[in-house]
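Last lecture ended with a question: if I hand you only a sequence, what can you say about the shape of the protein? Today we answer it with a concrete record. The protein is PH domain-containing protein. Below, first the input exactly as provided, then the predicted structure, then a couple of comments.
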Amino acid sequence: MRSSGRVAWPAEWGKPKRARWYLALGWLGSWAFIAFVSALAVASSEMAGATKYLVLFGLLFVTIVVVGCDSRVNVRKRGVERVRLEAGRGLVIPYSRIVFLGSALMVVLMFAVFATASYEFATKAGDDVPAPAAAAVVFGLVAALFAAYLWQLVTGRIGLGRVTLTPVGIEHRSWGYRSELPWDDVIGVSALGGGEPEIWIRGHDHAVRKVTLAGRWGGTPPQGPGIAVQAKNLAVDPALVYYTVRFYADHPEARAELAHEASVRRVRAALYP
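The predicted structure:
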């Protein structure tokens, strides 16, 4: 059985620029180290109040590094075992949990920073010192914005994305919106470059059914007549996903297997002519 790592990388995407991301993530990692060391240094000094902020920013940098490693460095993920068949639906190709949970954690950390700052400024505010009160309001408003995003997470309006291939069409759940396109309306499947690998599934005009679940908080569907899958967010090798979607778009006689384990076996073995 072939692994997804042996599937040819689409030429349109170009060679993954890992070296640039190694440097960027290494730089962020150094800032995380500085933040944690500084937290230890000031913990028992007159600046002990800054310790919590240094720890929060250190955790933020670490989270960014982890998400970056998963989405930018480890682009050709070997998570093909995560492809599964969902009874009554079809072949499910999930988004990366690391990217999703890491992004959510970043929002939590930013909320904690601004909410804490707002509280501390508010407790120092007084009639004779108006500046802390103004700062408390500003930081509180920023914290409220992050809280609104977290509320979208809690209510499920923003959720882990996935691409579902069914015998009748394609369903794409991004973080904050959902798109559906029948196979009969698919014109073509393309690998688009432009900085970030993208799988573009073009359909006829007005054929794509789009539902926005979280406004701009979870992204918005593309304006064009099609479905755009951001390859960096997938839990599976993007090249494998591209060839999978293209195969079923080009071979209508094989779409019936999307309701059976045969589709899972095909993906895991990368059986595409």
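Comments.
1. Confidence is low (pLDDT under 50) at residues 1-5.
2. The chain has two domains: 12-77+95-154, 162-269.
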